[in-house]
Each structure stands twice: as structure tokens, then as C-alpha cells.
Automatic annotation (TrEMBL):
F(1)F(0) ATP synthase produces ATP from ADP in the presence of a proton or sodium gradient. F-type ATPases consist of two structural domains, F(1) containing the extramembraneous catalytic core and F(0) containing the membrane proton channel, linked together by a central stalk and a peripheral stalk. During catalysis, ATP synthesis in the catalytic domain of F(1) is coupled via a rotary mechanism of the central stalk subunits to proton translocation. Component of the F(0) channel, it forms part of the peripheral stalk, linking F(1) to F(0). PANTHER family: ATP SYNTHASE SUBUNIT B, CHLOROPLASTIC (PTHR34264:SF3). This is ATP synthase subunit b, chloroplastic. Keywords: ATP synthesis, CF(0), Chloroplast, Coiled coil, Hydrogen ion transport, Ion transport, Membrane, Plastid, Thylakoid, Transmembrane, Transmembrane helix, Transport. Residues 76-103 form a coiled coil. It comes from Calycophyllum spruceanum. InterPro entries: ATP_synth_b/b'su_bac/chlpt. One of its GO terms (molecular function) is proton-transporting ATP synthase activity, rotational mechanism. It comes from the Eukaryota. F-type ATPases have 2 components, F(1) - the catalytic core - and F(0) - the membrane proton channel. F(1) has five subunits: alpha(3), beta(3), gamma(1), delta(1), epsilon(1). F(0) has four main subunits: a(1), b(1), b'(1) and c(10-14). The alpha and beta chains form an alternating ring which encloses part of the gamma chain. F(1) is attached to F(0) by a central stalk formed by the gamma and epsilon chains, while a peripheral stalk is formed by the delta, b and b' chains. In plastids the F-type ATPase is also known as CF(1)CF(0).
């Protein structure tokens, strides 16, 4: 304590004008600096309580920090809610995509089977038409050959008859042959 009082006593004593030096006693210089700062604060603050304004500043800062935290929590909650909604929409879209994929594959398989079945039916119909056409052409050819053979046989018989028969027999044979031709034509039609 003696050092403190000595430092205040030494304030009143100024060394001679020719010397200048530093006071290396830390305790005494800190007290001087603190007293100067308090004096300036009192003079400019006009009696404002330093601890009160510091407390108000800290309270204000604390409120701002709490408001910021509260706002951040609200934003976080909203972001989590939007994220959950987005995930739900994603799951829904994925399920719809899977459903479309399954339906698409089923539809493709169904169309493929329908195409194969219709192709088989078309081939079967073409085969039936071919067989019917072949039968028709065979029948027509057989009828043409019969008709030609019959005509040739008839011409041959007429030629033989004409050379062997007289007029009366000739007319009677022609009548019989015409009757036979008429009955044959009715049978073929």
C-alpha cells in the first residue's frame, strides 16, 4: 500500500524540466489510467451508470441472439416440413412410375400376344384361302379336261357314226346324243 500512496505523492512532484522518463511501476500506472477513463466516462456520460448500459447492451444482444435462434428453429422446422413433403411426393411419383412401368410391360406383353395371335389367324386364313383356291382350280381343271375329253369322244363317235350310218340312223343317234348331253349338263350344273 505504501507504493500506491507513494505513486500519488510522486504525482505532485515533477522532475526538473530537463529529464523525461517512464514509470515502470505497473500498479500505479494502471490506477492512473483507470481514473482517467472513469473521469472521461463520468464527464461525457453525465452520470450514466456504466454497468447499467453494459447490462442493457448484453440483454439486447441476448434477445437478438435468442430471436435469431428462434427464427432459425422456425426456418429449420419449415425446411424439414418441406423436405418431408418433397420426400412424400418423390415416393408417390416413384410408385406411379413403377406402376406405369409395370402397366407398360403388361401392355407390351398383351399387345405382343395379340399381334402373334392375329398373325397366326391371318396365316391360317391365308392357308385356307390357298387350299380353297387350289381345290377350286383343280375342280375347274378336272371339269375342263372332262369336257374336252367328252367333246373329243363325241366328235370321234360322230365321225365314226357319220361314216358308218345312213341318214335315218344318223338323225336318231344325234337325237339320243343331244338328250345325253342335256342330261350331263344338268348333272354338272
Amino acid at each position: 500500500m505504501k507504493n500506491v500512496t507513494d505513486s500519488f505523492l510522486s504525482l505532485g512532484h515533477w522532475p526538473s524540466a530537463g529529464s523525461f522518463g517512464f514509470n515502470t511501476d505497473i500498479l500505479s500506472t494502471n490506477l492512473i489510467n483507470l481514473s482517467v477513463v472513469l473521469g472521461v466516462l463520468i464527464f461525457f456520460g453525465k452520470g450514466v451508470c456504466v454497468s447499467c448500459s453494459l447490462s442493457d447492451l448484453l440483454d439486447n444482444r441476448k434477445q437478438r441472439i435468442l430471436n435469431t435462434i428462434r427464427n432459425s428453429e422456425e426456418l429449420r422446422g419449415g425446411a424439414i416440413e418441406r423436405l418431408e413433403k418433397a420426400r412424400a411426393r418423390l415416393r408417390k411419383v416413384e410408385m406411379e412410375a413403377d406402376q406405369f412401368r409395370v402397366n407398360g410391360y403388361s401392355e407390351i406383353e398383351r399387345e405382343k400376344l395379340n399381334l402373334i395371335n392375329s398373325t397366326y389367324k391371318t396365316l391360317e386364313q391365308l392357308e385356307n384361302y390357298k387350299n380353297e383356291t387350289i381345290q377350286f382350280e383343280q375342280q375347274r381343271t378336272i371339269n375342263q379336261v372332262r369336257q374336252r375329253v367328252f367333246q373329243q369322244a363325241l366328235q370321234g363317235a360322230l365321225g365314226t357314226l357319220n361314216s358308218c350310218l345312213n341318214n335315218e340312223l344318223h338323225l336318231r343317234t344325234i337325237s339320243v346324243n343331244i338328250g345325253m348331253l342335256g342330261s350331263m349338263k344338268e348333272i354338272t350344273d
